[in-house]
Design brief:
By secondary structure, this protein is an alpha/beta fold. The chain contains six helices and twelve strands. Helix 2 runs parallel beside helix 3 and helix 2 packs parallel to helix 6.
């Protein structure tokens, strides 16, 4: 049976924990119709989780008894690797899909970027943060990925350069798949990766030149031209899991 997970500002250091977030309370009481004695998992979003037995229900809070703290889950073996996704802002639903699935794939940071071909430049930050939290809960993560402020392309290059591996994906079909993403080669000892995904229409020639000059490897995800959200999902999964 699935044990439902909730991520929030929980104090998991004591035997009794309180759930006071109205959204969590509504989900537990009205949507899931949980009762005293049911098990849930609470996470602080910073790496610590606890299995909790629901104990008392009040109008403004729910209390539970902490059974055990477990700061590591099976997914955390991937979370030692910092995978930073620099993603050009796409249409609302496309960007939200890319963010949701990148979280499920194991991304560490999501940095929206504005490129020469970016059409939409605004984002609903609160909605995206909610999508990130809910995706983290759904896939069982202990650490919630960070949504960083929007950066212009040149500034994003400067931020991403500190990673051990720096890859910008281009749509030219004569490029080869980077070894980092090819059959897992080179992924085991790589602790940080910056991957850049462009907008509809891809990066411009000028942007590619700037990236190359900054030390980025220009690479491909294969001979097919992928949509921005598809490329983001595929690249993130391969960078995290190296398959």
């Amino acid at each position: 049976m699935k044990i439902h997970r909730f991520i929030g500002d929980f104090n998991l250091s004591k035997n009794e924990v309180e759930i006071t977030n109205p959204e969590n309370i509504k989900q537990i009481k009205d949507v899931l119709r949980m009762e005293k004695g049911d098990l849930i998992i609470l996470s602080d979003g910073r790496g610590t989780s606890a299995e909790v037995t629901l104990d008392s229900f009040f109008p403004d809070k729910i209390t539970g008894i902490t059974n055990s703290n477990f700061s590591r889950t099976v997914l955390e073996k991937f979370e030692h690797k910092q995978v930073n996704l620099y993603l050009a802002i796409l249409k609302k639903e496309n960007f939200e899909l890319a963010v949701q699935k990148a979280v499920e794939c194991g991304v560490s940071n999501i940095i929206p970027i504005i490129t020469e071909r970016t059409i939409k430049t605004g984002l609903n930050i609160s909605r995206l943060e909610k999508i990130i939290r809910e995706a983290s809960e759904q896939c069982g993560r202990n650490v919630v990925p960070v949504l960083s402020p929007i950066l212009k392309f040149e500034n994003a290059l400067a931020y991403g350069i500190s990673a051990e591996e720096k890859i910008i994906f281009h749509t030219k079909n004569d490029l080869t798949l980077h070894p980092l993403l090819n059959k897992g080669e080179g992924t085991k000892n790589t602790k940080s990766v910056s991957i850049f995904i462009g907008p509809e229409g891809g990066f411009t020639g000028n942007e590619i030149k700037l990236a190359e000059k900054a030390g980025y490897l220009v690479s491909s995800l294969g001979p097919l031209v992928l949509r921005g959200e598809t490329a983001a999902i595929v690249a993130t999964y391969l960078a995290v899991h190296g398959v």
